[in-house]
Amino acid sequence: MSASWRRLRLAGAANGSPPPADVTVASPAYQQILAVFATTDLSGLRAKDICHALGIGTAAKDVEGLRAKLKRLVARGVLTEAEAGLFTLARPAHRWS
Asked: Can you give the pTM of this predicted structure?
């Protein structure tokens, strides 16, 4: 996934595009998580990496709490889990006219 696509997705969210249909994803905590994905060029992130990026603790309770949020984003199609514990932004579905 290219960095420009991530920036475009984050910019779209910040530029007044309609809010996500899922209220969970629209919450500030989830938007902060998505911002971390939008600003990284890595092929995937682990929960502990995101904890570091957000400046929250890296104790087991912090990492597991964040991992639960990441799993919710996977269930809603916002993120994918390429391999166990490695999360990436989901690619938008291509629509053919």
From this structure: 0.70
